[in-house]
């Protein structure tokens, strides 16, 4: 039985309503009003959050996202837990599920756990109809498309044995940065599509051409596309670890990391992006993708290459331990009976994502030293913060609704996320309610050091004496 490949894409289904799937599908819906977009997830609470009337409480905070959701939701953008029906109706299915690092078994601590990818693929194999284009959107190890293809082509789980199904597999990795995701999706540097079915590739190209310049759409084979995503994140993380390593050298020599950054960033061969020193990279991708790359290199016997990339992660962890040790040293070598304020819990500004946030590791070091911690973040909910410290039940941990409220009786304030609001806090009032000597540790280099010092604070700024 011959299957006619669709030439008219009408329905798109995205499996996974998280930080990538939700915003990506919202932008496609906004630019392609003729397409019906269904974002599905087995997490009913998450779907309910996407359908909430109060758009300020969407599960993902991104500047500009709520405006697009308000415009498109209920028209051509839908959020549903009815996975099977939407798979059956879809011409294109994006897989945008979590791929965490394995915690046990072969490759534990390095390799990606693909259980949700496999589960999604088997569900597609069972409920899809006719010809379906399956698109990898999650960040995946090289050759994952081959696994997806094998499952789809060998599956005998079809509900209707008389229905012949065929599949085209494409890789279309995301390159958005949380905190600027909507702008990145609306104005991408490039769109990468990998595959071996030119017809399917062209159908996906046609969708992106609705708002992306054709010159920015790159097509490759599947394996190049999959590897490019891992390598892109590895290179970006490499720059962060590089500048952070130099920030420590600046503190030892009297150089200023901001001046060094400006000097090297003005070289067009280097450029000035991803040269902001700080407490280390976070988020769901960088660490996971580098460790995945390390595992891949070791698998192919490239041990020296693996060791090189693994050091990027080690420097990141070292920077966080270095900062926590420095804070302890300045607070007379002990944190017992001391209260510290942590300003910022998301891994970067303009997002509520806390995955791998530097605030988590540094805060845990403080708790081990007996500190009392009070957190404030303008976008991260209290339960989300407290969830990270389930192993510290006996510690004193609280979450405040304002920076001033958190600072009452505190010995030190640490700026851990570069929220714009933190630059304009009433630091005079904060100083008045703190215990003296009062410290400010600016790990993001976002405060006016002279003004803070003139108020009476002792201030430490990353990357300078």
From TrEMBL:
The UniProt catalytic activity note for this protein reads: UDP-alpha-D-glucose + 2 NAD(+) + H2O = UDP-alpha-D-glucuronate + 2 NADH + 3 H(+)
User: A GO biological process this protein is involved in?
Assistant: glycosaminoglycan biosynthetic process
What pathway does the UniProt record associate with this protein?
A: Nucleotide-sugar biosynthesis; UDP-alpha-D-glucuronate biosynthesis; UDP-alpha-D-glucuronate from UDP-alpha-D-glucose: step 1/1
UniProt KW keywords: NAD, Oxidoreductase
User: EC?
Assistant: 1.1.1.22
Give yes or no: UniProt keyword Repeat: no
Gene3D superfamilies reported in the protein's UniProt record = Cytochrome c1, transmembrane anchor, C-terminal, NAD(P)-binding Rossmann-like Domain
Show the active-site residues: 285 (nucleophile)
Named from the GO MF annotations, one term is: NAD binding
Residues annotated as binding NAD(+) are 16-21, 41, 46, 97-101, 138-139, 178, 285-288, 355
Annotated UDP-glucose/GDP-mannose dehydrogenase C-terminal domain residues: 341-449
Tell me its family: Belongs to the UDP-glucose/GDP-mannose dehydrogenase family.
Biological function: Catalyzes the conversion of UDP-glucose into UDP-glucuronate, one of the precursors of teichuronic acid.
Q: What is this protein called?
A: UDP-glucose 6-dehydrogenase
What taxonomic ancestry is recorded? Bacteria, Bacillati, Cyanobacteriota, Cyanophyceae, Synechococcales
């Amino acid at each position: 039985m011959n299957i006619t490949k669709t030439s008219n894409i009408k329905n798109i289904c995205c499996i996974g309503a998280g930080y990538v799937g939700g915003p990506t599908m919202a932008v496609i819906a906004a630019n392609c009003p003729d397409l019906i977009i269904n974002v599905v997830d087995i997490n009913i609470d998450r779907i309910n959050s996407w359908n909430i009337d109060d758009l300020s409480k969407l599960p993902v905070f991104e500047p500009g996202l709520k405006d697009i959701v308000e415009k498109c939701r209920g028209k051509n953008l839908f959020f549903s837990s009815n996975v099977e029906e939407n798979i059956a109706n879809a011409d294109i299915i994006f897989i945008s599920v979590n791929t965490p690092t394995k915690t046990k078994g072969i490759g534990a601590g390095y390799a990606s756990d693909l259980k949700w990818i496999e589960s999604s693929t088997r569900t597609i194999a069972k409920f899809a109809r006719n010809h379906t284009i399956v698109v990898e959107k999650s960040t995946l190890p090289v050759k994952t498309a081959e696994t997806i293809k094998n499952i789809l082509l060998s599956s005998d789980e079809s509900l209707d044995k008389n229905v012949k199904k065929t599949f085209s597999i494409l890789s279309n990795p995301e390159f958005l940065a949380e905190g600027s995701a909507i702008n990145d999706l609306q104005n991408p540097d490039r769109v990468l599509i990998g595959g071996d079915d030119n017809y399917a590739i062209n159908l996906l190209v046609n969708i992106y051409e609705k708002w992306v310049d054709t010159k920015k759409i790159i097509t490759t084979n599947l394996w190049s596309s999959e590897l490019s995503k891992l390598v892109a994140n590895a290179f970006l993380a490499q720059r962060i670890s590089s500048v952070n390593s130099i920030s420590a050298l600046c503190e030892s020599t009297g150089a200023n990391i901001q001046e060094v950054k400006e000097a090297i960033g003005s070289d067009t061969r280097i450029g000035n992006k991803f040269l902001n020193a700080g407490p280390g990279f976070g988020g769901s991708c960088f660490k996971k993708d580098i460790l995945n790359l390390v595992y891949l290199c070791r698998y192919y016997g490239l041990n020296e290459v693996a060791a090189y990339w693994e050091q990027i992660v080690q420097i990141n962890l070292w920077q966080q331990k270095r900062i926590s040790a420095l804070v302890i040293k300045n607070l007379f070598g002990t944190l017992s009976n001391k209260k510290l304020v942590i300003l910022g819990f998301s891994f970067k500004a303009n997002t509520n994502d806390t995955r791998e946030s530097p605030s988590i590791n540094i805060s845990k070091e403080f708790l081990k030293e007996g500190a009392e911690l009070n957190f404030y973040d303008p976008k991260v909910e209290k339960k989300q913060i407290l969830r990270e410290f389930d192993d510290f039940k006996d510690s004193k941990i609280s979450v405040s609704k304002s920076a001033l409220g958190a600072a009452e009786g505190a010995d030190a304030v640490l700026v851990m996320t570069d929220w714009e609001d933190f630059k304009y806090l009433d630091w005079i009032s904060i100083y008045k309610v703190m215990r003296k000597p009062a410290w400010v540790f600016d790990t993001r280099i976002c405060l006016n050091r002279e003004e803070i010092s003139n108020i009476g604070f002792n201030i430490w700024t990353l990357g300078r004496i």
